[in-house]
Amino acid sequence: MPLALIERLGAARSIQELLDVTACWVEDVVECDRLSISVLSDAGDKLKLLAVGDKTVMTPDTTFEFDTSLVGIAFTEQRVINLADLAHSDLTDMSALWQLGIGSVLVAPLVTAGQGLGTINVGRFDGRPFSGEDETKIRSMTGLLAAYLAAHRQVEQVRTVARIDHLTGLLNRRAILEVLAESIENRNDTAVSVLFLDLDGFKRVNDAHGHATGDALLVEISRRMSAAVREGDTVGRLGGDEFLAICRSADDAEPAEAIARRLVDDCAEPVHIGPAVIKPVVSVGVTSLNQSTRSTEDLLAEADYAMYHAKRSADSIAVFDDRIRAEADLLAAVDRDLPLAIANGEMEFYYQAVESLNSAGVLGAEALLRWEHPEHGLIPPPLVLERVESSGLIEQFTQWSLSQLGRDWAGLQKAAPSFAAKAVSINLNPSQLGLSRYCQWHMNMIKANGLAANDVVVEVVESGFEQLCEAASATLHQLAKEGVTLALDDFGDSYNAISLFTQFPIHAVKFDHSLTRAMTDNSQVRTLVAGMADVATTLGIVVVAEGVENQEQVDALLAMGVDSAQGMFLSPPMSITEFTKVARRNEAYEATLLAIQ
């Protein structure tokens, strides 16, 4: 066997290249008019003809049965078959070869370590039999080719396994991004669209039903995605509960947004997993290749931003456009600058007074996050909290919040001693309360600043109670045991608020601003607010009305016995310096009232 041939076989980078090198050598050493190579199918149940050179007689991908074809018998029995008179053969493929003008054939099996992998097949038109020397030359090639073929198939199998997500069977992150890169590079006149799908509330499924149920849900979502896209589209799992679909089509094909709509509808069907019945909700971001998006990273980022827009909007689908691009620039700036903003104390708390409507005195305050970004101005607090969670900065942010709040309020109490009996509230979300060390951090902050446990009220929005995991619930109960006051924020914004009173040690409720705003124009809302206020008061729970904007609302609240309130009509949010001035003036006011009495 020539050394140059062995080197060429060893340098082959794919099975097709390996077969092409083999075909060239066979054509050089054996006189033949037709040449093909068959290999075992992936399923292992047939032999498949592969095209090599320009002498393949049958259509590539033609398959042969093991027991009724010439190549099948040579493969199964692992022996060379050398026939010259094809016209009188009983085998089903011999008459077909004869009709194609082939008079003689030689078929040699590819065998390595006792394992059959395929056959080399040569034929002549004139019917001359292949000689023993021809057979020897072919035999010398089969063992070598089989060994290299086996090695390449093993490598391909490893690559295939490395490209598959082990849970869902879809392409994994690396593989789906490779497909996206290839789609962009080879697009020609084909439209390329990307659908980024995220499963909303997946963490709650894991917390409520366990990770096995969560995994089963991901498998079902992946199956529905695969069924919803078209033939030729590709679906992969990026990781966690995030999936990607790549849609390639002509301009007049089904729009990507329509495919996204079908995905949302199909995924919304309830999933039955053991005793659990889960109604999935997904958000899908859609983007398509255009002049400004020429890379995998661009398309993926656009689809990701569109998905986040969909998650925050009323619709479950968002198509990337200039408006979302502006939002994306803001998110990128927030994500980029957030770590330093936390580390360098670039954020601060503003404080809005909670006042007595009867005496107009200050009862306390609520701490409101404020971050003035140098490029984008004031960043909405909900956006800050969302990016804090998604960027993994929740612990650092929570520790900064407690530290800053403790210093501010301790300094205020020192400057205005009467505020030693008044509390400041901080709004926390379920992720913060679920941190294993939150309670410890909170009580350390109280102790380090010389505060009382009830000086800092922990507020949780009503809808947040629905998302509390076991750890967060335990934190609330432990805080209450330590003497910390718990408040239910945005009260009346959900449907099960009353039941929360029996589940948690709630000391105060804050009526949502939507109720405060509506009660002056709607008698039913006014009756509802009065009833809820009466229930809370009967239970010994303090009632505070948020969002007070005018005197009419003040009068309505006083009429139903609600004395505590906050809102722009009473006092705007202020820096700690400004609020300290207000606190000192309030001390003087209270002193005057006391002297009059």
Shape: elongated
CATH architect. name of the largest domain: Alpha-Beta Barrel
Please give the number of β-strands: 23
CATH class of the largest domain: Alpha Beta
Distance between the termini: 116 Å
- Kindly report the name of the CATH homologous superfamily of the largest domain: EAL domain
Counted by DSSP, the helix tally is 21
Largest sheet composition: 8 strands, mixed, barrel
**Proportion of strand residues:** 15-25%
Overall mean pLDDT score?
Answer: 85
- Radius of gyration from the CA trace? 37 Å
> What is the CATH topology classification name of the largest domain?
TIM Barrel
Helical fraction: 40-55%
What structural class do the secondary elements suggest? alpha/beta
In total, the number of domains comes to 3
Strand order of the largest sheet: 14-15-18-19-20-21-22-23
Give the uncertain stretches in residue-range form: none
Describe this structure in words.
The chain contains 21 helices and 23 strands. The protein has 597 residues and is an alpha/beta fold. It has 3 domains: 3-162, Beta-Lactamase (2-Layer Sandwich), CATH 3.30.450; 173-320, Reverse transcriptase/Diguanylate cyclase domain (Alpha-Beta Plaits), CATH 3.30.70; 334-588, EAL domain (TIM Barrel, Alpha-Beta Barrel), CATH 3.20.20.450. The strands form 5 sheets. An 8-stranded mixed beta barrel has the order 14-15-18-19-20-21-22-23, surrounded by 4 helices. A 6-stranded antiparallel sheet has the order 3-2-1-6-5-4, sandwiched between helices. It has a 5-stranded mixed sheet with strand order 8-9-7-12-13, sandwiched between helices.
